[in-house]
Amino acid sequence: MDRMAVASPPRSDPATEAWALLFELWSAQRPRLPEVAAEFGLAPRQAHLLRMLDPDRPVPMSKLACALRCDPSNVTGIVDRLEEHGLIARRQAPGDRRVKMLALTPEGERVRAQVRERRTEPPPEIETLSKADQRALRDVLRRALSALPPAGSE
Question: 37-45 long-range CB contacts below 8 Å, 24 or more apart?
Fold first, then answer.
């Protein structure tokens, strides 16, 4: 007799429910990201790449390809378009002319800051909560995020 796998019932503990609710809220906001990018004449990947660049620290293109989980040739296309808009510049890496570093231009820094500001505007679902609820949500999320390992420690 063949045994069929029986799906286990969904967990109904508070942590699972909270995570599901956060995921649902985030999923409902996903269309905002391409809309914000379009406001600045950018594709979503271009806006994401801008966000990843540190204004004070040029980054090798290969590192961005890894972070974006894509082939370096795809990064080249994204970079070409951002460079055409005057938002980033390619530089040679000190000590290795073969390595191309990406740096934000002053205009790129300005656009990056504006995109970040627009992306961090709370959605109406958060904005309409009472100030007390907004503070409580913020504080709980801060505590949850404080459990993350420091960036780069993986």
Answer: 37/115, 39/118, 40/111, 40/114, 40/115, 41/85, 42/85, 42/111, 42/115, 43/78, 43/81, 45/78
